[in-house]
């Protein structure tokens, strides 16, 4: 029999965050203890979900709600999602909500229903790795728009305008942003909305971190200021203080659906074809959205402390600089000394310092001088990381 080759459409599907972890596993097997600053999973760093949310899912399972559910999501969850969105100015009918297997599946379904082979999707650069992975899988073209470090990683509006073409179907906005931690200003968002309206594009806005904010930063949902522009907003239970990434519960809400009814229906058709998102966990969505939110300020306070340790610390080390993130739980430092490339740098730090980051080009960044650090680890791990980075920079680049 001949060798079985994979479909060509898989060629450009990469997901740097997990691909590098395979390498770290080799070091673990060789007996080294690795500090993982690569994966944004709050649950593995000791952040616990609220008990009442866990109880709601356990209760559903015990009551035998272990069956398939509505492909769009159970009604009580869709009602709660639409109501919570409404409380933040996002107009959305509960029938225009789709509950998904994580925000990841929402990204996959929303893009699959939108873009044909060869068409274009604008996405932030640097940006979350799944967006280009899915666009590439669809044999469409991901087009990165710049976000500017000197401007707190805000999107470059002129660059977006330059890159729109007649076959650009949509623009992805991620606010707060992974990997930079930027929170976008309403002015910036309004300009993006204007571009989308003028060019008949859908805005896919990934707001899975909208509750994780520092220093009093304010999050403005795109859909709350989009007037008649079609917006698909992504949310979920993985982040945002619920810290339940293993449940695989996310959702998308369609706002100003009138001009995108056919698109929304196509997304719903794809959702029906995959049956449903995990059933019993959907019974916890109402509890998550309508129960106490006391855990949020607590988590944000803890994360802000960790952000300050890491970001203030790395800014004191010669050879590194870092913009202070205002939200989410990532930082995107710059390596100021010359490195062959960012992936080689990250692998070398793994080899010499046993700490794993993700290289900036893994997020589609357009220079090779950045890496992403997760801010979730305990303070002592972050302090140890800083000592190691200082050691690395001193030995290799200051000639000691
Ligand atoms: C910006 C962003 N969107 C979506 C996701 C996917 O999350 P999930 O599928 O767990 O909801 C992540 C995960 O890290 C993310 O960072």
Describe this structure in words.
- By secondary structure, the chain is α/β, with parallel strands linked by helices.
- It folds into 2 domains: 8-48 and 294-396, Alpha-Beta Complex (Aspartate Aminotransferase, domain 1), CATH 3.90.1150.10; 51-290, Type I PLP-dependent aspartate aminotransferase-like (Major domain) (Aspartate Aminotransferase, domain 2).
- Helix content is 39%, strand content 15%.
- It is built from 13 helices and 15 strands.
- The protein has helices at residues 16-29, 51-62, 75-87, 102-114, 130-137, 157-163, 186-198, 261-273, 279-282, 285-290, 295-316, 342-353, 379-397; strands at residues 35-36, 97-100, 120-125, 141-148, 154-155, 168-174, 202-206, 231-236, 250-255, 320-321, 330-331, 334-335, 355-356, 358-359, 371-374.
- An 8-stranded mixed beta sheet has the order 2-9-8-7-6-3-4-5, sandwiched between helices. Strands 11-15-14 form a 3-stranded antiparallel beta sheet. Strands 1-13 form a two-stranded parallel ribbon.
- Helix 4 runs parallel beside helix 5 (130-137) and helix 11 runs parallel beside helix 13.
- The model has no long low-confidence stretch (mean pLDDT 95).
- The structure holds pyridoxal-5'-phosphate.
- Pyridoxal-5'-phosphate (PLP) is lined by residues 40, 102-104, 128, 174, 178, 206, 208, 236, 238, 245, 250.
Question: How would you describe this structure in keywords?
Answer:
15 strands, 400 residues, globular, Aspartate Aminotransferase, domain 1, three-stranded antiparallel beta sheet, alpha/beta, binds pyridoxal-5'-phosphate, Aspartate Aminotransferase, domain 2, single chain
């Amino acid at each position: 029999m001949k060798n079985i080759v994979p479909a060509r459409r898989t060629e450009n599907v990469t997901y740097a965050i997990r691909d590098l972890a395979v390498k770290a596993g080799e070091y673990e097997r060789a007996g080294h203890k690795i500090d993982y600053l690569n994966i944004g999973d709050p649950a593995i760093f000791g952040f616990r979900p609220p008990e009442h949310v866990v109880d709601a899912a356990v209760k559903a399972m015990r009551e035998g709600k272990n069956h398939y559910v509505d492909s769009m999501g159970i009604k009580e969850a869709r009602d709660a999602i639409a109501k919570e969105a409404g409380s933040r100015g996002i107009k959305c009918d509960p029938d225009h909500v789709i509950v998904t297997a994580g925000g990841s599946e929402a990204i996959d379904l929303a893009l699959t229903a939108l873009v044909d082979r060869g068409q274009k999707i604008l996405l932030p650069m640097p940006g979350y790795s799944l967006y280009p992975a899915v666009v590439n899988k669809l044999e469409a073209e991901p087009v990165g728009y710049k976000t500017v470090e000197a401007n707190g990683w805000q999107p470059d509006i002129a660059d977006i305008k330059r890159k729109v073409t007649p076959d650009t179907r949509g623009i992805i906005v991620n606010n707060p942003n992974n990997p930079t931690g930027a929170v976008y200003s309403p002015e910036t968002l309004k300009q993006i909305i204007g571009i989308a309206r003028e060019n008949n594009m859908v805005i896919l806005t990934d707001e899975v971190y909208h509750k994780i904010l520092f220093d009093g930063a304010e999050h403005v949902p795109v859909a709350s200021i989009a007037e008649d522009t079609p917006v698909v907003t992504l949310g979920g239970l993985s982040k945002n203080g619920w810290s339940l990434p293993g449940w695989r519960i996310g959702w998308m809400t369609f706002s100003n659906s009138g001009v995108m009814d056919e698109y929304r229906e196509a997304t719903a058709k794809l959702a029906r074809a995959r049956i449903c998102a995990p059933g019993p966990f959907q019974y916890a969505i109402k509890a998550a959205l309508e129960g106490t939110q006391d855990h949020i300020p607590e988590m944000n306070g803890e994360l802000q402390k960790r952000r300050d340790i890491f970001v203030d610390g790395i800014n004191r080390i010669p050879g590194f600089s870092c913009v202070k993130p205002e939200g989410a739980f990532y930082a995107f430092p710059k390596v100021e000394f010359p490195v062959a490339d960012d992936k080689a740098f990250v692998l070398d730090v793994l080899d010499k310092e046993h700490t794993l980051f993700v290289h900036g080009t893994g997020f589609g960044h357009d220079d090779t001088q950045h890496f992403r650090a997760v801010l979730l680890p305990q303070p002592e791990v972050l302090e140890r990381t800083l000592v190691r980075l200082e050691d690395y920079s001193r030995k290799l680049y200051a000639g000691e």
